[in-house]
Amino acid sequence: MVGSDNTPPGLNPKKAAYMASDLEKNAKYWGLPIKMPEEFFKLMSSNANLKAQRFLVALEHENPDYLRPAARELWYRMWSRDEPIHEIQNIKEVCDKLKIPNSDKLISEINSPKVKDLLKKNTEEALAYEAFGAPWIVLKREGEEDACFFGGDRFPILCNELGIEFQGPLKSKI
Amino acid sequence: MVGSDNTPPGLNPKKAAYMASDLEKNAKYWGLPIKMPEEFFKLMSSNANLKAQRFLVALEHENPDYLRPAARELWYRMWSRDEPIHEIQNIKEVCDKLKIPNSDKLISEINSPKVKDLLKKNTEEALAYEAFGAPWIVLKREGEEDACFFGGDRFPILCNELGIEFQGPLKSKI
Asked: Which family does the record assign (chains A, B) (predicted)?
């Protein structure tokens, strides 16, 4: 967000109030147990998820099969159960729950220059795609220009670009 | 936007580029001939549509049956054919095209204190609903709190609140 000179919408009090109510309606629509973290604005402004990001980068590099379950578990901690994700202890809890092998080694790599560089590279790649927020989805197709989609509300448009029907929330598959 | 302390997203160059591309994809999805006005940012920052807004307010007050066709025609001028809407002459063209009765009287009322006050009242009503942008949709239901929706991308969520299926773009009905 800093790299794209963007400002978080939550800094405007009216937008912040709307976002909370919009989130609630979206949760109902998608059938997801979303709950705004109590200390959301503190979390947003304090780089609280930096270690979790680096952990995911290390995981992607060393044991990519666990990337998606770990990202999902971190999501549930932050966005559903309002549990912390910013301490090493929290990341250990995720590893234990998912029985991730070699988790001590992965965690010890969080502060390594290699992992820090990988995360920087990912961030630079996102900025090269002109990203200014998340989720930022890049659609790559052979012979066509990459197309970017910002936000969780662009799936109907994304499906339309692909020429397939958007089926709405697949609640049975969560 | 000023009353809500909001800033337009187009002021961030990355967001502006994304908005143009997002608009193009939305136009395909909805089957609408949307085309960004060449001088969009000048129009945005110059209150260019103030007379058109006042005209619509006068029309709603005097001849409400024409409100929707006139709003639609003004939309097509600005968002599809890149024709001006900021001069009285442009509003006359809309009146002629739609054969709006008493249009001279309506146009003469654009600068009247009564019409200015009606528009101010509408704006204050929107601000009371915590609006910070447009379109701002208010869902009113008996015995329930009003629900607000910001943006043209919230129809699936709005339908979900109403317990009805969102059918996607109804291209045959445009």
From this structure: Belongs to the GST superfamily. Kappa family.
Burial of A56 (0-12, 13-18, 19+ CB in 10 A): buried
Q: List the alpha helices (DSSP H) in chain A.
A: 13-30, 40-45, 50-62, 67-79, 88-98, 103-108, 113-128, 155-162
Please check the confidence at residue B72 and state whether its pLDDT lies above 80: yes
Interface test with A, best of B1, B2, B11, B21 (most A CBs within 10 A): B21
One-letter amino acid for residue B90 of the chain: N
Give B54's Cβ-side CA count (13 Å radius). 20
- Looking at the predicted structure, is the pLDDT value of residue A45 above 90? no
Interacting residues of B59 by C-beta distance below 8 A, sequence separation 6+: B66, B67, B70, B100, B106
Q: What is the per-residue pLDDT across A103-160, written as a single tens digit (0 to 9) for each?
A: 999 999 999 999 999 999 999 999 999 999 899 999 999 999 999 999 999 999 999 9
Structure tokens at B46: 């110059």
Query: Looking at the predicted structure, is the pLDDT value of residue B63 above 90?
Result: yes
**Are both B90 and B16 inside the same structural domain?**
yes
Considering the domain architecture, whether residues A104 and A125 belong to the same structural domain is answered as yes
Domain count, chain B: 2
Establish if B103 belongs to a structural domain.
yes
Q: What's the domain range around B74?
A: 9-134
Of A12, A149, A161, the CB nearest to B132: A12
Nearest to B103 by CA among B90, B113, B114: B90
